[in-house]
Amino acid sequence: MTDKQLVIDCQILQTPAFDRGMGKYTLSLLIEFLKQNQESKQYNKIEIILSKNLIIDKERLTLIKTRLNGASISLLDLPTNIAEGTESKYSQAKKVITQHVSKKAEGQVDFLMMAPFFVGFPSVFPDIDAVRKFTVVYDLIPQKIWFLQKIFPDDLYFRHFDLFIEADGILTISNAVRDDLLALGLPEDRLASIDGAPFNRALKPSYKSLSNYSKPYILMPSAPIVHKNNKRTVQAFALFNKRNSGKYRLYITSSFDDKTKADLGGIADNVYFTGNISDEELASAYHEASAVLFPSLSEGLGMPVLEASLYDVPVACSDIPVLTELSKKGFYQFDPTNKLAIANSIDDAVNKKNWSTHRDACRRTTKKYTWDRSAKLLAHKLNRPVANTLSPLLPLHIIMPQPNGGTPAGQLGEQLYMLLQKKSSVSVEFNKKHKTSTPSYVAHLMETDSKIRNTLELIDRVSILKRGTRSLKLVYKTEDGTSATICLRAQIKVKEKGLGIKSWTFKNNKGRVLSLQDISELIEGKDRK
C-alpha cells in the first residue's frame, strides 16, 4: 500500500487565537476531518506540527491531543516573534519544516497550513517540490481596510501573499473569500470553498450566566476594528431606540479599550460592553436576545449570523456578499453605510416581520452549514489531483502605471503577476506611483522578496499603459524585438460599500468581456521561444 501522509501546521492553536475565530475554526474542522479519515483511510498517517517555542502548557497540549485524536503530534524548534530578525526567522522556519518533512517515508506527502496570515510565527511551506501544498484562507480584510486601519506591519502582512503562489490548492471559508482571491489573479482551478459551521452548535443555554443582562436587548457581536462598523451602528441604534421609547439595551461583545467604550457610549444611551464572554454565556446571550445585530462592512464568513440562526433569533445584518451567500431570505439585511436603513432593519427584526419566512430560510442554512460537510469538502479538495496545466514561460517583466490594486491598470498588473508567477519568473516595474485607498501587495513583495526585484535583463515585457481613466493598452514586446498591442476597456464589477474598494472587468474592442485567463493567453500565445 502507498504511504499517503498529511502534515498539518497547527501553530495557530498555541496562540491567543485559540479562543477566537481562527483557532475555533481550525479545531472544529480538524476534529471532524480526523473522524472521517478514520473511516475513509484517505491518509495512512496524519501529523500535527506544533512549536516548542509557543504556548504549550500541559492543559492546552492535552486538550489538543484529546480533541485531535487520530493524529500524531510533533513539537518542532520553530522561531517566533517575527517582528525582529524577520528574514532569518522565515529562513530558519523553512529549513526546520523542510528537514522534518523530508524525513517522511516514501510516498505522497501533503502539507496543510491552517493560518497563513497570522503574524505570531513564520508561516512557511516545506521547500520540497514533490510535496503538495495547501492552505486555508479566512479573509483578506487587513488588505481591504489597509488605509483605514493598519492591523499588521506592511512587511509582515504582505509577504504572506507569496504563499498564494507556492500553494497548489487554496481553501477558503466562503465563496466571497474565494472571489476575493480570484480578483487577485489566482487561477480558479487552485481555489475551493469549504465553508464552515457554527461553533456553538452543541451548547445548551446557561440562563444563570446572564443574570446581569437586562431584557429586552439587542446583541451585537463585534470587535474594535474599523470594518465592524461600530460607530455608525451605535448611531443607528440610537435612532431605533428613540422610536421605541428607549426600552432596548445594546450589548456589544468583545474587548474594547476605555476610550473606545466612552466614545461609543457617548453616542447613545443604553449601550453596554460585555467584554470577552465564554461560549456558554454567548449561547445564552443569543437565545435570550430580541435580535442579533451584525453590521460589518466585510467578513470572511459571518460566524455570529450562523450561530444566532441556531437559536431562532432574528438577525439584522449587512447586505454584503458573504452574508447574502449564507441566506438570501433568512436575515433582515441593510445597507451598512446607511444609519436609517440599519435602524429600520433592527425594527423589522425585533418585531419579527414576516418571521416564518425568515425562520424557515435560517433553518435551511443551519442544515447546510455543518462541520461534517466542511470536512468532506476539505477531504475532496485534498484528494483531487493538483492542477498542472500551465506550461513554463520565459521570464516576464511587467511595467505598470502605479502600485495600486484599486485602479484598472493596477489591478490588471497585479492579477497578471499573481497568475503568471506560478510558471515564470515575473518582475515588476512601476513607471508612476500613485497612492490611493487600496494597497498593492506587489509593491510590498518587491521590497521584501529578492526573487521579484526589478531586472535590467532583455526579457519579454508587458507594458500596461493608460489611455484614459478606464482605457488600457497592453504593449507586449519579446526579447527579439517583436511587439503586439492589446486594447482593453475597464468597467466596474464590484464596489464594496463603506470600504471604497472597486474590482474591474475588461472588454476588448469588440465589446467581449475577457477573463484574466483570456488576457494571459493572449500574452502567452505570442512567439516565445
Characterise the protein shown here.
The chain is an alpha/beta fold. 35% of the residues lie in helices and 20% in strands. It has 18 helices and 20 strands. It has helices spanning 21-40, 58-67, 86-102, 141-144, 154-158, 162-166, 175-184, 230-243, 258-265, 279-288, 303-309, 321-326, 339-350, 355-368, 371-383, 408-421, 441-448, 516-524, and strands at residues 5-9, 45-51, 72-76, 109-113, 132-137, 169-172, 191-193, 217-220, 249-253, 271-275, 291-294, 315-318, 332-334, 396-400, 426-430, 460-466, 471-477, 483-496, 501-507, 513-514. A 7-stranded parallel beta sheet has the order 3-2-1-4-5-6-7, sandwiched between helices. It has a 7-stranded mixed beta sheet with strand order 15-14-16-17-18-19-20. A hairpin with a 4-residue loop joins β16 and β17. The longest helix has 20 residues, at 21-40. The radius of gyration is 24 Å and the shape is globular.
Task: Give the SSE layout.
Blueprint: E1 5-9, H1 21-40, E2 45-51, H2 58-67, E3 72-76, H3 86-102, E4 109-113, E5 132-137, H4 141-144, H5 154-158, H6 162-166, E6 169-172, H7 175-184, E7 191-193, E8 217-220, H8 230-243, E9 249-253, H9 258-265, E10 271-275, H10 279-288, E11 291-294, H11 303-309, E12 315-318, H12 321-326, E13 332-334, H13 339-350, H14 355-368, H15 371-383, E14 396-400, H16 408-421, E15 426-430, H17 441-448, E16 460-466, E17 471-477, E18 483-496, E19 501-507, E20 513-514, H18 516-524
Parallel strand pairs: 1-2, 1-4, 2-3, 4-5, 5-6, 6-7, 8-9, 8-11, 9-10, 11-12, 12-13, 14-15, 14-16
Antiparallel strand pairs: 16-17, 17-18, 18-19, 19-20
